Amino acid sequence: MGAAASLVERAWRVRRGRDDLLVLTRAEVAEDEACLAAQRAAIRYCREHIYYGAPVRVSAVRSAAHHLPTALVSLDSARAAPGAAQDGPRGGAAAVAGYPEACVVSPAGDIVVARRGGAPGRRVIRAATLAAATDPPAPPVLRPAAGGGGGAALGVAWAAPGGADAAAVVDRYEVQHRGAAGGGGGGTSPVGWRALGAVEPQRGDAHEAWARGVAPGATVEFRARARNHRGWSQWSRAVTLRAAPAPPDAPGRPAAGNLRPDAVGLFWRAPRRDGGAPVTRYVLRARRTDPAGAWRVVYDGPRAARLVDGLAAGTRYEFSVSAANGAGASGPSPPALVRTPSAPRAADGDAGGSANAALLREGDHWREYWDAGRERVFYFHRATGERRDDAPPEFAAAADAQEREARFRARRRALRDAIRDVPERGAEPLRVRRDRLVADSLAALLRAPASALRRRLRVEFVGEAGVDAGGLARDWCLALSRALADPGAGLFARTARGELELVAAPAGAADAKRADAFRAVGRLVAAAVAAQLCLDLPLAAPVLDALRGVGDDGEGGADDAALAAALADVDAVDAPFARSLRWILGADLGADGGALGERYFTATAPGGAEVELRAGGARERVHDGNKRTYALLVARWRARGACAMELDALLRGAAEAGLAPGALAAFSGGEVRTLICGRGGGVDVDELRAHAQYTEDARTGFGHDHVVALWFWQAMADLGAAGVARVLAFATGSDRIPVDGFRPPLTLTHDAARTDALPVAHTCFNQIILSRASSYAAAARQLRCAVDNCASFELS
């Protein structure tokens, strides 16, 4: 307003008739023209960025304070009436009510925005502020919004970017959201970003946005950008929010499987909806159905199955189960009514009639498994323990999920046939000392003929009397692989995901001895795959891809697929470095790379030496035009290039023992990990039970439904993942299940001559001998004692 004030002071009036004449100098005329230009620009700003293109009226208001008129910009209510067509983002009565009452534009171009209905919060936008804003605004910084959303809503809030002047000219925010895959934040939804809404501060909108109707426990990402009269900002950094979980739905009605005079095996379905948090426990209640029967808790634990013992023969019981997660407990399931038989194998038991029979017929109780000994599939009912070779009719509807496993099974069978296409002649065992496990084993692997490693491995521990019929080799594979993975061995480093990447030697420190160590590791991997033995070597994705023959293609073209693959490899071994590369790809580095500082096409090798990513890289600065190529090359260097010598040696050793990269080309990275490490995610007790065999005893009636067998599987379920792994190691020498199961199968034998005695294991035959038990508690206690106090192999 300073320019206008000077004009008023210098102006003088001459009245001629009805007109007032203002006599100005040439300089004053030029000053007036500048004021009018600023006022016209401000009026245009009001129309486009305050009324958003809606129809407006512009009228002039004269005052004694200035010889130039003040402009009054207001909504043309007649043309913007409810239902009238308009270009703005809102329509109808809400549109009219949301616009400011008026904008007063001074002769100098300053804008005063008056809220409708006398609402407080008058805003002033200076002409100098409009002129100074030559670029789009900075992106807003999002934070969780406080309150106001309710339990089914997630919201973000933000402050206007920049200072007060920059905030004054921000006229709109656009907010987008997307769900995270699986609701757990472990990836983004394939649906992509979707518009959540527009926030218009000129109309009094709060700086917040809400996604409503969010499922309990769901994860939502938000991002936003700001606009001024110069354009849109970049998108903000995404903020991820997670809705509070809710209690789960009730589980399904319990189904009764094995029915005995004193016990019943119950199974139930997990809740259809878990409330956004994992179900951590089930509470099973039981009562007698006579008038004196009271509900009591018979199980409180994580499994959706329980053998309930201590029941009275010939008695009717009612069972109901509830589920709980971190947010609370569900209601009870529909009850199951069961009558125990009056005597073993009596026909007067009732597992629940037609309702229970219908539950047992549902297809997802059946599991399809591969019998490696007979080389065919079989079907196992997890509730009743029934096994059959032909597919049950009800299985067909639930069989689609098994198709991928069938294809994987066919590929791995062809792989083993190709690896083991050598004569089966006897071979000398690998002799190692336990106190020099790594050194002796690597030397033995390098000395052994390659053909011997493609047959069944035999191991001999010096100073121990055990004879290897399979158990010692399993024990050796796990013990050696864990020793190799130890950081003290200097061969592998554990990533943030718990996987193993190769440790690169410092520049100039690599030697033939180190290369031989990795060549022996490659031979070990190939020999274990050929012999169907498990290693505890969870190799990171770049190593698995190299074993599959999926290599980097040098510089190649930095197309989207190549760049995405390289960044995924880096994600697996160094997620912070991958995030920095993604920042570089999304930033505007400028034509000379000045926004990034002094960065060249080089990488830092172990030991600190600089290595060129391509010829002349030390002189080639990273800028906006070549950043994609830089990101591709440095990602490939971080994932594989830094340890190229070690990786080449490992691949050479694997190829010598029959596992050339082409042999694994048909497998995914996850499938290769399964071939090497066995089934991941813990041991599935149901799968163990499905494959188990029993030394039948007609005298005692021992079999899959004998109380000793039922108590064994109940104890296995109660041990938890770590305990089950110890039982496997006790019985087989390996604490994990090979991809095609144990050969020979896990076998349970009953020794009726002993009572409450410790189980005995024969690891070469994968056999456990169980004594009679006076109670379930005694059986569980003896099993736990045996597996916690066993070490070494002896002849018996």
UniProtKB/TrEMBL annotation:
Entry-linked Gene3D superfamilies: Hect, E3 ligase catalytic domain (3.30.2410.10), Hect, E3 ligase catalytic domains (3.90.1750.10), Immunoglobulins (2.60.40.10)
Enzyme class: transferase
Gene Ontology CC terms, in alphabetical order: cytoplasm
Pathway given in the UniProt record: Protein modification; protein ubiquitination
Catalytic activity: S-ubiquitinyl-[E2 ubiquitin-conjugating enzyme]-L-cysteine + [acceptor protein]-L-lysine = [E2 ubiquitin-conjugating enzyme]-L-cysteine + N(6)-ubiquitinyl-[acceptor protein]-L-lysine
Positions of the UniProt region annotated as Disordered: 325-353
Molecular functions per Gene Ontology: ubiquitin protein ligase activity
Keyword Transferase listed: yes
Gene Ontology BP terms: protein polyubiquitination; ubiquitin-dependent protein catabolic process
Ranges for domain HECT: 449-796
Keyword match Methyltransferase: no
Alphabetical list of InterPro entries matching this protein: E3_ubiq-protein_ligase, FN3_dom, FN3_sf, HECT_dom, Hect_E3_ubiquitin_ligase, Ig-like_fold
Database matches in SUPFAM superfamilies: Fibronectin type III, Hect, E3 ligase catalytic domain
SMART domains listed in its UniProt record: FN3 (SM00060), HECTc (SM00119)
Domain Fibronectin type-III: 136-246, 250-343
EC code: 2.3.2.26
List of catalytic residues: C764
Swiss-Prot/TrEMBL keywords: Transferase, Ubl conjugation pathway
PANTHER family named among the record's database cross-references: E3 UBIQUITIN-PROTEIN LIGASE HUWE1, HECT DOMAIN UBIQUITIN-PROTEIN LIGASE
Protein's UniProt name: HECT-type E3 ubiquitin transferase
Lineage of source species: Eukaryota, Sar, Stramenopiles, Ochrophyta, Pelagophyceae
